[in-house]
Amino acid sequence: MKTITATSSGRPSRTAVRRKSGVLKDLYKNRSLLVMFLPFAVLLLLFNYLPMAGLVIAFKDFDFSKGIFGSSWMNPLLSNFEYLFSSDAAFRAMRNTVLLNILFITVGLVFEVGFALVLNEIRHKFFKRVTQSITFLPFFISWIVVGVFSYNLLNYESGSINRLIEWMGFPGIDFYSSSGLWPLILTIAIRWKVTGYGTIIYLAALTSIDQSYYEAAAIDGASRWQQIRHISLPMLRPTVIILTLLAVGRIMNADFGMFYAMVGDASLLFPTTDVIDTFVYRSLRKTGDIGMASAAGFLQSTVAFVLVLSSNYAARKIDKDSAIF
Amino acid sequence: MTAKKFSISQLILMLIVAVFSLTCLYPFIMVISGSLSNEQDIAAYGYTLLPKHVTFDSYRILLLGSHRIVNAYGVSLLVTSVGTVLSLLLTAMAAYALSRRSFKLRGVLSVYVIITMLFSGGLVPWYIICVRYLDLKDTLWALILPSLANAFNMFLIRNFMHSIPEEIHESAKIDGAGEFRIFYRLIAPLALPVLATVGLFMALGYWNDWFLGLMFVDKQELQPLQLLLRTLISNVDFLRSSGNAAAMQRISAQIPSESMKMALTVVTIGPIVFLYPFLQRYFVKGLIVGAVKG
């Protein structure tokens, strides 16, 4: 192509460019790179940066016809927040979000590290490969499908678990009206879906451990269990700490997909399952309470920001290369 | 290895893994079996591991009777293919630009991208921007555009491109190639492993997505498959009211709603499970590459 050869011929040497260059010169020189970056940048601007600016609606009396920036300010300014804090449901959603996340993180850690250790010990190559493929499978399906699965297992009339309970001679359990059981059910559902996936990084860390450590330990008479305790686990420590810290950074965010697909509109379950994301969604789309939704969303965004920054800072302290940024 | 191939402890470990694997498989088998069962069996025995009487009625009705389902399948296929191709192209181009060492602005532009990983406006402003300012309500674009650009994917690709030797650019430049040509002819083929992995993630994301549909799509003919499945599960009478009544009557006097739900679930999972065995190894490799230096 003519244009391509035209731009690259007759270019001054590198040092000469550096000496003379200003920002504009660099922009011009790399204009094709800029063009390549542009569509991505525009998308981020529209779908990430504009909503950030839109956070001001938490302080506004939002009127759809006037738009975010045309709507008038609340008077007093923090009324949306006062309203939010006076609501029991909002408090409940925040408490549930944090508590459920702590539960998911701790149980997840135990299961993923445990499963990685077990898989790593298994010597049968074929068995290992097949089971790893199977346990990875649930990661690929949507939460909607998981919702179908759980409904098949749990519903009162024909659910497999209730059939089993009745067959054993006990009265069935109406899971969809017993909120107390749902932290457990949701934890199991997550473990079912992502354990195979979550294990991969730990397994990779385990397989990268230098085998000579184990050989030396074996010569010194260490049992397999002692080798795990004194070699495998300490070597996993940095990975564990960093992944956990990063998970803590997201503690204010819930997986809307999971909650919506598994719990949906079952308001009987809200005492233990309503989280900020579902609360905000409901306020926005169902009850139309934009003031409340935007105040809750504002809190969530800002607290999450602080948490992400501090957990990443901590991760960086522990291992410079493992932090996201 | 010091351990013998078969010892008691090996057997116990294998048993643990086998039990967990079966737990992972069980719901899939149950759904497939349910989709092949007739309605009376499900009512009498609940969901069983093997169908007592095998029938393909529910699939037949699914394909012939309900135009909404066929339509939703089309929407999901279209959104997944267009979304994945566009997303991969734009993300890879941006990654290429940021991977060029001679590009002085790349520091500033990286920060521009990183900020979106740290801070977000949250659901409410995002929703209002999309509906009021970008006018995405009830359009196919609403299912594609909002998840087109993702910072994490971009960095995954950029890091991989970073590891490609700089000399390749130099020699291509000498041969008179411009940036677009270098990207398209040299770097993209070299970055194929990471492009395939990220592309798969994107395709999976689009296929499994229903959140965008839930937020922006009220029109029935634009509903993606996952959303339709959700509607079907929460509304038993849906099929009776949605299909081509005459066609359904011809196939079956009574519409098997339970096995239909299962059949739709199978159809929704279908493409992924068929692709899965071929893609999984690639996937795992890509994940580890991304995780080791994310």
From TrEMBL, chain B:
Lipid bilayer topology: Multi-pass membrane protein
Residue span, ABC transmembrane type-1 domain: 73-279
Keyword Membrane annotated: yes
GO BP, sorted A to Z: transmembrane transport
Protein family according to the UniProt entry: Belongs to the binding-protein-dependent transport system permease family.
Organism: Paenibacillus borealis
Localization per record: Cell membrane
Gene3D superfamilies according to UniProt: MetI-like
Gene Ontology CC: plasma membrane
Keywords: Cell membrane, Membrane, Transmembrane, Transmembrane helix, Transport
Signal peptide positions on this chain: none
The keyword Disulfide bond is assigned to this record: no
Descriptive protein name: Sugar ABC transporter permease
Main location as per UniProt: membrane
Regions crossing the membrane: 12-32, 72-97, 109-128, 140-161, 182-207, 262-279
